[in-house]
Specification:
By secondary structure, the chain is mostly helical. 49% of the residues lie in helices and 11% in strands. The longest helix is centred in the first third of the chain and has 24 residues.
Length: 393
């Protein structure tokens, strides 16, 4: 009997850990997109709500009847590394126009949740014309239609917009229904944007629970715990030098160390503690939205190869990195063909540096690039020549 009870407890812990990492990788989980993942989150919703509230201060909303779970992740810093992406073609990031049309579509769907694409386009055109500072929307232009279609496709991917029937002919205008509750859940800011007098990111993301500029000792410790765990979960690596004084003091305290280790264990992460900082590793890559090392692009391969000169001879100037990239292109003329041009070396070095910065492995200050402590784990070993890495890519 005890053995059976232990198995059930172990299975519950494993399911909670998997659900935590699923929500970290995909803060919106819906039944229509991933029934298995949604059922797991629905099944363990009570401990999941408690876990995210205690460790991160994030709100998790699970709607079993409507078929979605939404983790409201909040950060005071703007993060451009995880943009909305087009669901068609190359999956390029949304530009400003697509974000604008996405917001206009969502606002109009709240007012008229059952509509057709044609009717919605006309409503969006009227809204754009009436909104100060918003360029007019002209669905007769091809680039405008493409941006509008990308906004609608993203809403469909989220499950916020669904067709009520299949078209009977190619020209039929399909009726769509919007999930107005889910539409309002897409925006996760603690403060509604409509209440702001100016476009102030700090005011938009302010969280009253932490006491503002005059917190109590309890509120200060709560903010330190939540902000530190948020960074550990969101960032590839957290260096001590990048922590605020409160975060650093909390991480160094016995309570803070216990909290970090407990959060990692309960979520199924492997915690790496070093003198320079912390790193959470997901052995199953469930919470991982990007990988390094990875031979999926020339920029990532170049980033790995440029790390060695950065570590051994750095800091280096951006011009020196471009020279290193030019050497790679000369040595392997059949590799990275999109960069085999007059300005290709500079572009390759810039793209590689963007990869390194995104993964917390290098930092650019002006024209100087410095390898960060976590970069040492990727240093090229003497018995693994970099040529093998490039040829494998």
């Amino acid at each position: 009997m005890n053995g059976r009870a232990n198995q059930l407890v172990r299975a519950e812990k494993e399911e909670i850990a998997r659900a935590v990492r699923t929500l970290l990788g995909r803060p919106l989980v819906s039944r229509h997109a991933d029934p298995a993942a949604f059922d797991l989150v629905r099944k363990r919703r009570r401990p999941l709500v408690q876990w995210f509230d205690y460790f991160c201060g994030w709100r998790l909303v699970v709607e079993p009847g409507q078929g979605y779970a939404r983790l409201a992740k909040v950060s005071p810093r703007a993060d451009a590394t995880r943009p909305a992406r087009r669901t068609r073609g190359s999956g390029a990031p949304f530009d400003r126009r697509r974000y604008t049309l996405l917001c206009l579509c969502a606002a109009e769907l709240l007012a008229a949740p059952v509509t057709t694409v044609g009717l919605l386009a006309r409503r969006v055109a009227r809204a754009a014309a009436a909104e100060p500072g918003v360029p007019p929307f002209d669905p007769a232009r091809g680039e405008e239609r493409a941006a509008f279609a990308d906004a609608l496709a993203l809403l469909q991917q989220y499950g916020a917009l669904t067709p009520l029937h299949e078209p009977s002919t190619r020209d039929a205008d399909v009726l769509y229904r919007a999930d107005t509750t889910l539409l309002t859940r897409l925006l996760t800011t603690p403060v509604p944007p409509s209440t702001l007098q100016t476009a102030d990111l700090a005011a938009l993301t302010a969280e009253p629970r932490y006491g503002g500029n005059d917190p109590t000792e309890t509120q200060r410790l709560l903010r330190a715990r939540h902000s530190l765990v948020r960074r550990l979960l969101d960032e590839p690596v957290v260096h001590h030098d990048d922590l605020t004084p409160d975060q650093h003091a909390y991480a160094a305290s016995p309570t803070g160390r216990r909290t970090i280790r407990r959060a990692a264990e309960e979520a199924g992460f492997v915690l790496e503690e070093r003198a320079e900082g912390f790193l959470l590793v997901d052995p199953d890559a469930i919470a991982t939205d990007d990988r390094f090392p990875d031979d999926g692009s020339p920029a990532k391969v170049a980033a790995l190869l440029l790390l060695d000169p950065l570590i051994t001879g750095g800091p280096l100037t951006t011009a020196r990195l471009a020279d290193e990239a030019a050497g790679l292109l000369r040595r392997f003329p059949q590799w990275a063909r999109s960069y085999q041009s007059r300005d290709g070396a500079a572009r390759l070095a810039a793209d590689a540096l963007e990869v390194l910065a995104r993964f917390g492995l290098a930092r650019r200050t002006g024209e100087q690039v410095t390898a960060l402590p976590a970069a040492a784990r990727y240093r090229v070993a003497p018995d693994h020549p970099d040529a093998d890495l490039v040829e494998d890519a």
